[in-house]
User: Fold this.
Amino acid sequence: MSKSIQILDKGFFTTVQDGGRYGYAAIGVPESGAMDRLAYTQANRLLNNHPNAAILECTLVGPKIRFNHPTYVVITGAHMDVTLDGTPVKIGVPTLAKASQILYTSKISRGTRCYIAFGGGLETATVLNSKSWYTPITPDNQIRNGATLSLGISTYGDRKGAHIKYKSAYLSAGRVHTIQAFRGPEYRLLTHSEQQLLAVPFTISKLWNRMAVQLQEPFDNKLKSIATSPVIPGTVQLTPSGKIIILMRDCQTTGGYPRILQIAQSSINILAQMQQGDGILLSVT
Assistant:
């Protein structure tokens, strides 16, 4: 009988994610996958899981989980308080949960998304070579209360000699975070003064999710819409009305707004841990 866990409380928005769904952009299927790839990768490495093992991605408020079998578990990413039957669990430290024990997670206090990995990874359905949840190509878009999830075969107990140490990447509240960006295909169409305006701080608006992050401050420009062209996670679009939109992991595969910048992969991880009111500075290379 395979190991499993049960979701007693799903938290705010909890999904199953892996390293992403590649090779289907031509038919309009997004990449998806873990928003913060650094925290995701760290979680799997800490448990000696397969690099592409599926784990839980939790946004703002984490879930409450019962273990049906003895299982190693680790939490990475944003900071939250975690206990196992009342005993505190350290972020980034693999912990053995016994059968019937319950993992309690709190509201996230720093950052936006945390990752919960289990020894052997989650054995959910594979759709187009990925376990990442994204409707309409997967049945669910988030975990439901009462759901039971199967786990793969863990090798952590046999091969935990890697001794990988977790280094947190928590974002400091109240500061402006530098986002590394490259010039996009339509950057050259900006005037010199418009290019200089990109060097001032911006604020994350209330419109942010797995698909895109919209910046609050309007950016006056004279650019016109373009013919529908390819976009990928990290593409920065500028609308004629002055909205700056940074595409994220669940973004569409084409778009008709000028692509003025392309965010570096490492900075997409930073953006994944930000929310409304946080400040960013676009550093254009």
Summary: The two ends are 53 Å apart (CA to CA). The chain has two domains: 4-162, 176-284.
